[in-house]
Amino acid sequence: MMTIDQRPSRGLAILALGNQIKRLNLSTYKVKSQSNGGSYLVVKNGEGWSCECPDHKYRTVTCKHIHSVLFSLTLRNSIITSQDVIPRIDEQTPDECTYCHSDKIVKRGVRKNKRGLTQIYWCKSRNKRFVVDLGFSRMKASPQVITAALDLYLKGISLRSITDHLKQFYGLKVNCSTVLRWIHRYIKLMSEYVKDLMPQVSDRWNADETTINVNGHYRWLWNLMDSETRFLLSSRLTHTRRDHEAVNLFWEGKLRSGKTPTEVVTDGLTSYESAFRTAFPKGTRHIRSPRFIDRTNNNLIERLHGTIKDRTKVTRGLEQDKSDNKIVQGFGIYYNFIRDHSALNGKTPAEAANIDTGLEGNRWKRLIAKSAEEVSKREVKRNRVSQRQYRISMIKGTVQTYLQGEKNGVTLKWLKNQVEYLKYSGLTNAELKKALKELQTPENLESFLV
Question: CATH number, domain at 325?
Answer without folding.
Answer: 3.30.420.10
